[in-house]
Amino acid sequence: MAESKSNSSSRKGSQKRSGSQKRSGSQKRSGSQKRSSSSSSSSSRGGSRSDRPMREMVAEAVGQLQELIGRPVESVTGMEKDGSKWTVRIEVLELERIPNTTDVLGIYEVTLDKNGDLIGAQRTRRYYRSEASED
């Protein structure tokens, strides 16, 4: 009898764990689905999404550039909207060194369309972290 109680309680415990694992997995999936569907849903609405908040467009630019080049973003140094296009200037750590004052950084200009999709990216400057900027 004691064995059947412990077995049933351990089964319940594993069911609880697998249930929470399922929930966390579905939460992760829904988060990534949100990200991937946000671009497609905005274009499938047929309406212009040029009214998207600047913060959202900058986050799109940062995320897409990180995926594209695989390097960590240090900061956003500028942003501009020109008609239906957004241009975001992003500082990226290109080469990490010791001491960190000799790190190599790059400035990238990323262009997004009105839906937040990447339509262009180019490195415009490369420099050491310790360099004084004239820009």
Q: Quick recap of the structure?
A:
With 135 residues, this protein is of the alpha+beta class.
Can you count the helices?
2
Helix and strand element order: HHEEEE
The percentage helix is: 40-55%
Q: In angstroms, what is the radius of gyration?
A: 23 Å
Average of the residue pLDDT scores: 74
Instruction: Categorize the overall geometry.
Output: elongated
Secondary structure category = alpha+beta
Describe it for me?
The protein is of the alpha+beta class. The protein folds into two domains: 1-47; 54-128, Nuclear Transport Factor 2, Chain: A, CATH 3.10.450. The chain has two helices and four strands; from the N terminus they run H-H-E-E-E-E. The protein has helices spanning 2-44, 54-69; strands at residues 73-82, 85-95, 104-112, 118-128. A four-stranded antiparallel sheet has the order 1-2-3-4, with helices on one face. A hairpin with an 8-residue loop joins strand 2 and strand 3 (104-112). The longest helix is centred in the first third of the chain and has 43 residues, at 2-44. The chain is elongated and about 45 Å long.
